[in-house]
Amino acid sequence: MEAASLERSVVATEVTNIACHANAEAEAGWVIADMWSETEMDRLSMLLTMLWHKKADELKLKKVMKMDVRGEELDWDIDDKRVNQFRKSWIAEWSSKWGSLEDVTMINSMPFTYHRAPPCAHPCGTLQIYSAKVAGLSGGFKWPLDVFGMVAVRDPIDQNLNIIFYRTRHSCQTLTEKDPYLALTGPTRAVLMTDPSLGPVTIEAELKVKRNTESEDQYLSFLAAPLMYSSGSGPCMFDNHYSGYTSKNSTLKVTLAKVASSVEATIFIQVIEGSWPDGLRGQITAHLFDIEPEKVVLLEFGDDNGVPVSGDGDVELSRRVVSVAVNEELVISYNVCQDGKMVAEQLVVFKAAEAGRSFAILQLGTCKLEVLVAWSVVSPEPDGTAACNVPHMTGVGIDAPEYRIL
Questions:
Q1: Do you know which InterPro entries this protein is assigned to (predicted)?
Q2: What does residue 18 show for φ and ψ, rounded to 5 degrees?
């Protein structure tokens, strides 16, 4: 099925399922709180459409990359052989259940925001990915580099690719020695990192440097490496906070952490009044209040790009999904600069929840932004509701705790 038609059919199915679940739960007497209104259903449909637009782009990318790999003879050195061995092992162990090695995860975020969560879905260990940069150049590579390709993770939920970075050859990112960081776009759902017996968590990279012609393009990073599980305690465990993965031409340095007993937060921001001021540069970020030293960059804006806002006023964030320790608070903030000086900064703090949604308002001059956070627990099963099949209710139609502005 083509990506666009897949997107339309899945969104329609999701919204229909939400309505059916809500009706069934109301008839069964499971829902005491207010039901999702028609306006909320319309808004939810729009949010799901946004998520599936991104998923459709990922599917198109993987189709192009698959064709590129098939048409190329790889010169297997020792690093390439490690990747080749990983791929053979993956096919032998997982392909009968999860399909092709190149398949992108079809499980989106917000699985139990509006559905009742089964007992097997609960706060659990997840992986927070902050940044990834290219370092340790070798093989004659010199800055700047026009980079394209993919970085992704696999986890026990479905062992398919959960993409955190991708660029096609025609939309490559220019990396410099001063700014070697990849512009991350994922993960598209929480990355499970809890029990090693459920299966491995791996990181994979397939990055190339664009040359004058496709035949001259060169591999910058080609690797598949396991992420080690931590046995520490506390809301955030930084045992593997800074990890380097070296292949023959570079090292991919990833800043990450395991967030213990966490829930998934999917973030949406919409301009509801006024317009974004021109000429500003800055970031919209997310982090855990008083815990995380690092921040997840949801969007960088400025230069000639401005702020990407859709016709409906939705700010097109590069990343939307973060992990939040269940007893902690999520901070979403913006900071803007003009002529190299900080001119505005504001943040809003949300208490983590296992289901439902939270709203807040941020103000930037005459521009009013609505922040919506959709909360969900995580299931180790690809379809937790079907797998567990127990009528248990966590919070359909329930607003999550209040926010506070600092």
A1: DUF6598 (IPR046533)
A2: -60, -45
